[in-house]
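hey so i finally got around to running the thing on that chain from the lab meeting. sorry it took forever, my laptop kept dying and i had to restart like 3 times. anyway pasting the input first so we r on the same page abt which one it is
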Amino acid sequence: MSGRAEDMQPTKPNIIFYPGGLVEPESYSPLVRELAKRGHRVYVAEMPLNLAIFGQNTVENWVKGLE
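ok and heres what got predicted. didnt touch it at all, straight out
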């Protein structure tokens, strides 16, 4: 992508939630919607047994899948 710096649109950071503590991923919906309205790409990972300790490499696996 080329162009002058002043012509480029800033990009909002991506946000990834690792739900844990037996919290259902759907519980994050209100917060996720609000962040998305503000221009963020928001992801909520599904964790085995709803415990983040069992899904420690989830994001790394997502990134590898995008390459």
